[in-house]
Amino acid sequence: MKRKAKTGFTAGIENYFPSSMPRRRRRFLLVVSSFLILYVFLFISTQAGGFFTRARLSDYEAGKVAENDLILDREISYIDQEATDLKIAARVQLVRPIFEVEEDITQRSLSLLRGFVETVESTVSQRLPEETAILQIEAEYPGLFTSDQIRDILMVARSPFDLGICEDLLRRILRFGLVRFPDQWDQKESIIDIWRWRNGSREHEEVPLSELYTTENLEDRVREDLADLGVSAGFIPIYTNLLQVFAAANTFYDPDQTARNRERARQELSPVVVRLDPGERIVRKGFIVTEDDMEKILAIGNSSARFNLQGMLGIGFFMIALYLLTFWLLSSRYAGVRLKESQLYFILSVSVIYLVAAVLISELAPVPSWLPISVFFPTALVTMLLALLVSPRVAVNLGLVLSISLLLINRSNPFELVFAFFSGVAAAIVVLGADKRFELVRSTLYLVLAHIGIAAVIGFLGRLQPGQFMSLAGFAVLNSLFCSILNIGLLPFFEHILNIPTSFRLIELSDLNTPLFRRMLTLAPGTYSHSVSVANLAESAAREIGANSLLARVGAYYHDIGKIDQSEYFVENQPDNDNKHNELKPSLSAAVIKSHVKIGIEKARELKLPEEVIEIVAQHHGSGLINYFYVEALKSDGGTKPEDYSYNGVPPASREAAVVMLADTVEAATRTLANPTVAKLDKFIWKQIMSKFENHQLDNCDLTFKDLEKIKRTFVQILAGHFHTRIEYPEQKEGKEAVQ
């Protein structure tokens, strides 16, 4: 029979990732694709994603009445350029003009004065006539002084006063700095910064203009200093004139260094940053939009459109860490189950859709900062679906990951993570043990109560106002109702496309009033009876060892559906003395017997049964030997190989498949017992179980000897009750003898 093509979710994925591609590579490409899709979307929403923001901001214009409130949904910082310019101007004014003392001028001036004083003193010591002394000095220092000035200097030199006073005062003035301002000096500063070399090191000093020696105020300052030194009033003009001649300006403005200092100050200055907090009302409905409001609005738009490389790298590294955490939590060690490929596809798809929806809601919904925006996210829906379609532990683990992922949404309310996580955990818990779809309706009530409890905790810890708490609780209740209704509606759809054996689907598959089982009852009544008996044994045994009893029951119902179309070749369906195999060779009989497994697999796939049920159909005989026909073949051919008379399957890989194999074997074998007793059943059933164990048919499943003992005990209990009516009691024997 030709195998039908795959349908459903896995087939849709394979349109893009062909099944011919190695599974490991296909999974890798799927993970990378989901990562890139999510990363690109986050890039658009956070960087170029100002589209949403700009669409709202375009409604506002300065001088017009605002039609809507504009409430900030995240923290925004922007530079106030006007305030920054004022700050820079003030800071630049604090940078003093730089003046540099040139030491070579200082030394040259002092040397000239010293030489002049020595010449005067030498002339005086020669006791020359006054006119001759004047002419001699004029000859050596022509043009510096008039004859009258030289005469006054000679008078001072002959007096008790020392001309060395002039040298000491000049040295002090020049070392302090004799400033000459530029011709076009337009600075308004009252203090300058003078740099000089002193004792081999460069130092500077900020000096007020009032304390400076300048070329303009030198005469007045010298007169004051001389008076402070106690120089006679009659000699002060002579000393002043002498110093003015030899005091050369040695301190000059350095425009380049001043400009560099001011530029450095400008660069080191941080701009004035205005911070807008989440929840801040920028514009109030019904009020005129001011220029200040527009400045904030433009800042919001620019912030949304600005490319932030650091932020995008942060998102990338965060997502990588999130993916690694996800695969760690979904590994079989922590998830408790080995995920099938379709389940992995489903988890990735749901996670991406959840995060995309979360970003869209956070961008488009005007939510106040005190309200956790996760109250609008379908976290409970995701975890309920996962708890029912995969496992509760996987649901809780993924709920944790999705809650952490909300950090990608740029909001500052920590209760967003709290609500998302506990909502997901509560949703996974309330659907535990639900075997009927009606019970999902009852779980809605529990989820509503859980959401109210979570809202109460957030309201208490967040110190919400009564009105705020009522709003939070109302949204939480609506979220639980919305998620529960969607869960009830979407669950059958996902059950179908993922082909997952949920308890609801298995209960539907356990209905024996279907065309398939009615046809089995008509064409293969023995197989039908056998399947029902095997189902009772398998379900009870699976329940005892903690396996999925419902899966075992359904697998037992369907394990022999390959016998329907050729039921006459199987002993349970044959009338007395009408064995079709009497006319066939042992090899052909073995081929017919083996074919029912292959045909059963094909029928199961046509019925779109869950893969776990198909595995039970395929593995219920494992690779066991068809002993009867093998022995018959040995009678005619001693070289017959056991492989030719063995099933082509593999030993059971799950506990449920192993239980069905044992129930199938024991149910069929016990039909051959005559006058069975409990002791005889116990010994016989254990022999059948150990035969499977010794033939390595239980190597691939996780059954322990303790499990095998429980299975045997369950089988004995059920079959003892089944054969109870066949046991002959003494009273019955006496009655028969009396009749005879």
UniProtKB/TrEMBL annotation:
Domain HD: from-to ranges:
527-669
Stretches of the chain forming a coiled coil according to its record: none
Any idea which UniProt keywords this protein has?
Membrane, Transmembrane, Transmembrane helix
Q: Which PROSITE patterns match?
A: HD
Q: Is Ubl conjugation among this UniProt entry's keywords?
A: no
Q: Where are the transmembrane segments?
A: 28-52, 311-330, 342-361, 394-411, 417-434, 446-464, 470-494
Q: Sorted alphabetically, which NCBIfam families does this protein's record hold?
A: HDIG
Write the protein's name.
HD domain-containing protein
What organism is recorded for this protein? Marispirochaeta aestuarii
